[in-house]
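Please produce the structure of this protein holding magnesium ion.
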Amino acid sequence: MLEINRICHFCNKVQQLYIVANISKSTAVNLKDAATSLRAGNLVAFPTETVYGLGADAINKSAIENLYKVKGRPKGHPLIVHISSMKNLYRWASEVPEYAIKLARTFWPGPMTLILPRTKLAKNFITGSQNNVALRVPSHPLALSLIAEFEAQGGVGIAAPSANRFGRVSPTTAEAVYEELSDYLSVTDVILDGGPCLVGIESTIINCTKTVPDILRPGSITKEIIFAKAGVIVEQSTYTENQQQIKASGLLRSHYKPNASVFLTGTPKSGDGLIALDTYMTPVGVIRLASPKSNSEYAQQLYSALRMADRKKINRVFVIPPTGLDISIAINERLNKSARLP
Ligand code: TXA
Ligand code: MG
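Below is the modeled complex.
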């Protein structure tokens, strides 16, 4: 276990932070301790297959208040509750349409979040005072083990937004979580290291509160995949900020931002960063940040490449967006927000 000293952002005192070893070396004791820590009201950052989440006990109001503080997220933005399996669905959801059952059966555990009418367990501090709740069963083995252990200790769900400060790029490694949040976490909080995330961008969010489901946030599970595997027709949300019916901070026009300015058009000059598929040549003097070989590799590498730009103190990053009807839709949605001025 790696111990790191740092100055607390809130109290200005020296504190220690623990990074638990990689999953291959991680022991059941680490997970048990992390679950106990969550039950005691602390925060635990953990890997999921999409991005790292910053977890808190979903029914502990003060833990959730602390989570908002550490994340710097405005109050009233709802959180996703992570559960270990479909058997816990009805504890949180009061009505589950037939199509949502099909989606859960087909895609859980996995990178899909379902928004459903809530039960009394889902309090206003989780749902942003809406009458629905977002639920997900992640597939990362470490996340599943943590949730299962947490439930074995009496917990009912772990609320976890992406483990970044509000509006910034989601972390896809434990080191990136440390970079983002170490100034804000306390000694009793934990970062679990499960290696780099496989998907690399956040889950597909599906609104299941109407007769026909719609995608609120695109992800690796596309509407084509949903139809092919579950036989369910979903629509792409026609959401605009002015007609906001359902709150989702990732739906703000500007989000997923590194310090560098992101450009989706124009030509990079010497000293600028570049993210593009490996078939795209790097102009002389330009700093290549990622050369993915496919669109799914593109998603996997995108956030760490944007972080690398900041680490290298690059001011301008040029991105050649991927094309297609696959995960590239979600990548483009993130890139458009990343490139937008606040
Ligand atoms: O892949 C993911 O979904 C990751 C991992 C950690 O599970 N989580 C994640 O959480 O991306 P977050 O909070 O960064 O983004 C979740 C989005 C936010 O835009 C939030 O506003 C929206 O989901 N959301 C959560 N609950 C909602 C609800 N009840 N109704 C509408 N939107 C909701
Ligand atoms: Mg987020």
